[in-house]
Amino acid sequence: MMKTRVVLVTGAARGLGAAIARRFHDAGYCVAIGDIAFDAAQELARDLSPDGASAIPLALDVTQKADFESARDAMLAAWQHVDVLINNTGASKVVPVMDITAEQFDQVIQVNLRSVLFGCQVFGQYFADAGIGRIVNIASLAGQNGGSATGAHYAASKGGVITLTKVFARDLASRGVTVNAISPGPMDLPIVHESVPADKLNAVIQSIPVGRLGSADYIADAAIMLAAENAYFANGACWDINGGLFMR
Ligand SMILES: NC(=O)c1ccc[n+]([C@@H]2O[C@H](COP(=O)([O-])OP(=O)(O)OC[C@H]3O[C@@H](n4cnc5c(N)ncnc54)[C@H](O)[C@@H]3O)[C@@H](O)[C@H]2O)c1
C-alpha cells in the first residue's frame, strides 16, 4: 500500500499558505497547518478535515527553532512520517528605504530568514536521515529585482531566501533531499489588496505584461510538482512565476 504523503505548510492560516495547504490536501496529502495565528489555523484544519485525520493545526512561530522541532514531533505522532516542508511564512512592511528602523529591519529579516534557516535545519536533518524529502521555500520577485512596493528589508530578505535555498540544496542533495524556491510576482491575495491602495493597484496590474495578478492556486500547483517523489532532478532552483515582470 502506498503511504499517504505528509506536508507541513508554514504561515498556512491565510493567504498563499492557506491556498497551498488546501491544494496539497486536495492532492491527497495529510497537511499540518503551521501558523502563529493558531485559531485561524484551527479553523482551516477543521474545514479540510473535520475529524482531524488528514489536517491538523500547529502553533508555530517560525522565528523559533524549537517550534519547528515540536511541529516535526507532532507530525510524527499523528502520521509517523513527514515528506515535505513548505516554508511559506513571510512578513512585509511598506516603509521607504531611508526610513526603515532597526526594529522594522530585524523583524522582517527574522521572520523571512530565520523561518527558512530553522525550517531547513530541522526538516532537512530529518529528511536526510530518512534518505528522502522535499523542501520548497516561497521567495519573491522582490528578492530578484529589488522589489517596488514591498520594502527594502523585504526584498533583501527574499534575496536571502533564494541564497539559503541554494546552500541547503547543495548540502542535502546527496542525502535524497531537494530544496527549491518559488518566486511569485504580485498575486491576487488579501495582503496585496490590504497594503496597496486601489488606484496604485491598477497601476501595478497594468505594469504586469500578462495584465493580471497571479493565482495562488497555481503557485500551490508548482509547489506540489516540486514536492513530488519524482522531482529529484529539480534542486537549488528558483521557479519564477511573475506574469513576465522579470525575465532572465
Ligand atoms: N502576496 C503576494 O503577492 C506575494 C508575492 C510574492 C511572494 N509572496 C510570499 O508568499 C508568502 C505568503 O504571503 P501572503 O500574501 O499569503 O502573506 P500573509 O501576510 O497574507 O500571510 C502570512 C501568514 O503567515 C503567518 N505568520 C506571520 N508571522 C509568523 C510567524 N512568525 N510564524 C508563523 N506564522 C507567521 C500569518 O499569521 C499569516 O497567516 C510570503 O512568504 C510572501 O512573502 C507573496
Automatic annotation (TrEMBL):
Alphabetic keyword roster: Oxidoreductase
Keyword Nucleus attached: no
CDD domains: SDR_c (cd05233)
Any one Pfam family match given in the protein's UniProt record, by short name: adh_short_C2
Segments forming domain Ketoreductase: 5-185
Keyword flag Endoplasmic reticulum: no
GO MF term (any one): oxidoreductase activity, acting on the CH-OH group of donors, NAD or NADP as acceptor
InterPro entries in alphabetical order: KR_dom, NAD(P)-bd_dom_sf, Sc_DH/Rdtase_CS, SDR_fam
Similarity field: Belongs to the short-chain dehydrogenases/reductases (SDR) family.
Name listed for the protein in its UniProt record: 3-oxoacyl-[acyl-carrier protein] reductase
Organism: Caballeronia sordidicola
